[in-house]
Amino acid sequence: MDSVVNWFLDPLNWQGSAGIPNRLFEHVSLSGAALLVAALIGLPIGLFIGHTGRFATAVINIANIGRAIPSYAVLVIILPVSLQISPEYGLNVIPTFLAMTLLAIPPILVTTYAGIREVDRDLVEAARGMGLREPQILGRLEIPLATPVIVGGFRTATLQVIATATIGAVVGGGGLGRFIVDGFSNPSLPAQLYAGVILVAGLAIGLDIVLALIQRRITPRALRGPLDRWAGPAEQASPADSPGMG
Amino acid sequence: MESSAGRAATVEFDQVSKRYGGSAKAGTPAAVNDLSLSIPAGRICVLVGPSGCGKTTSLKMVNRLIEPTSGRILLDGVDAAGRELTELRRGIGYVIQQTGLFPHQTVVENVGTVPRLLGWSGARIRERSEELLGLVGLDPAKYSRRFPSQLSGGERQRVGVARALAADPPIMLMDEPFGAVDPIVRERLQDEFLRLQEELAKTILFVTHDIDEAIKMGDLVAVFEIGGKVAQFGTPAELLASPASDFVARFVGTDRGLKRLALSRVADLTLHAAPTAVVGSDAGEARRRGLAASFQFVLLTDPANRPLGWIDAATLPESGPLTEALANPTSPFVNKRTTLKDALSLLLDSDVQVGIVTDRTGAVQGLVTVDMIAERMREGHIAPAYLVDAPPGAPADPAE
Question: Which CATH superfamily is domain A2-240 in?
Answer without folding.
Answer: MetI-like (1.10.3720.10)
